[in-house]
Write a structure and sequence with these properties.
By secondary structure, this protein is an alpha+beta fold. The chain has helices at about 80-95, 110-125, 145-155, 165-170, 175-185, 205-220, 245-255, 260-270, 290-295, 325-335, 340-350, and strands at about 5, 10-15, 20-25, 25-30, 40-45, 55, 80, 95, 100-105, 130, 140-145, 190-195, 195-205, 225-230, 235-245, 350-360. It has three domains: about 5-45 and about 185-275, Endonuclease I-creI, CATH 3.10.28; about 55-170, Endonuclease I-creI; about 280-350, no CATH class. The strands form four sheets. Strands 2-1-16-5-3-4 form a six-stranded antiparallel sheet. The protein has a four-stranded antiparallel sheet with strand order 8-9-11-10.
């Protein structure tokens, strides 16, 4: 029987196989089907081997026979950076109307719309038009039955709830993936509150957000996920977000296409981050008092001044804290003190924990 497990940070574990789990103060391999609510699962972040080495060959598409004055297009044979960016734009702000064989990408920045139109020409040899009605957001409109069928075969989805990141993107080299994410970022935003900058992407596409968290995990970006209620539509939408240093790393990795978002993102990059504020990133393997016990306490006597540094780490014994934060564990390690084997493994293998919240 396959399992469907969801962690608090939004990551989904499906099917069978084993994952690392914190149990009885140690890292243990646990079958996904044996996980229970409350288990702390460790996921590794940063995996260059998951990205493809060469651009994906798209192969043959199953297209219906042309009829009448149907426009002839060039069907892409390789998933390159241009096509990837166009697919990302569609994933974030596009929709398909099959009754008119029309693909529309909407955005409020004219330069972005012109770039989308140029990408239709480069990738499909298709003339797309840019439209603007009053003070509403403009659109890039591409009309082609064959293009609609190609997008459908790539698994792009015609409406938000159906959208996924195409399997071919997940198999592509880093530059192609980054180009796709740049297009997807048309729906992303940044903010700075105090000393905790934030990057976020909110979409009505839960499966696409699952794919996104997987891709960002391969890049080493730690993300969380939250559901936001929209009273206007009486509906909740999932948001994937990154905070602190991970938000900054993500902005450096994938810059925004819209100038006003790039300007806002620079404020995130300029923010002075306090890593102590990220209290959700904990190491649930050892209590702080156990780490404190390994730190030299110094010697007694009149000449003992300065022989111990334990007072500096007294916060590890705070009874209000169940598990030490990853930040303080890293500080202990950087100071040269010995960590338990599995705790050191958490740092060496870039593991981050999140508890199980649902099991199906």
């Amino acid at each position: 029987m396959n399992a469907d497990v969801r962690l608090r940070n939004g990551y989904a574990l499906r099917g069978t196989g084993t994952v690392l789990c914190a149990r009885d103060g140690a890292l243990r391999d646990v079958d996904v089907r044996d996980l229970v609510v409350g288990d702390w699962v460790a996921l590794g972040f940063g995996d260059d081997g998951s990205f493809g080495r060469d651009p994906v060959q798209l192969g043959e598409f199953t297209l219906s026979p042309p009829y009448g004055s149907q426009k002839r297009i060039r069907v892409p044979e390789i998933l390159d950076e241009d096509l990837a960016m166009l697919l990302g734009m569609y994933a974030s702000e596009g929709h398909t109307t099959k009754t008119t064989w029309t693909i529309v990408i909407t955005n409020g920045v004219p330069d972005v719309l012109r770039r989308a139109a140029a990408l239709w020409g480069t990738c499909f040899d298709l003339d797309a038009r840019v439209t603007q009605y009053g003070d509403k957001c403009g659109s890039t409109v591409a009309s082609s039955k064959a293009a609609v069928e190609v997008m459908a075969e790539l698994g792009c989805g015609s409406r938000a709830s159906e959208k996924r990141i195409p399997r071919e993107i997940m198999m592509s080299p880093k530059p192609v993936v980054i180009a796709f994410l740049q297009g997807l970022w048309l729906d992303a935003y940044t903010s700075v509150s105090g000393k905790m900058p934030r990057w976020g992407l909110c979409l009505d596409s839960p499966a696409l957000l699952d794919d996104l968290q997987t891709l960002l995990r391969w890049f080493g970006i730690v993300t969380g996920r939250v559901s936001k209620y929209n009273p206007l539509y009486d509906k909740s939408y999932d948001e994937v977000y990154a905070v602190g240093a991970h938000a900054q790393a993500l902005i450096r990795l994938v810059p925004f296409l819209e100038p006003y978002k790039a300007l806002a993102a620079q404020r995130v990059l300029d923010a002075d981050i306090d890593p102590r504020r990220n209290s959700a990133d904990v190491v649930p393997l050892v209590h702080g008092s156990q780490l404190y016990a390994e730190i030299p306490k110094g010697f007694s006597g009149r000449n003992s001044a300065g022989s111990g540094v334990a007072l500096k780490w007294r916060s590890l014994c705070d009874k209000r804290t169940i598990w030490p934060s990853r930040h303080i564990v890293q500080r202990v390690a950087d100071s040269g003190y010995r960590l338990p084997t599995d705790v050191q493994r958490v740092l060496d293998e870039s593991l981050h924990f999140s508890p199980v919240v649902t099991v199906a």
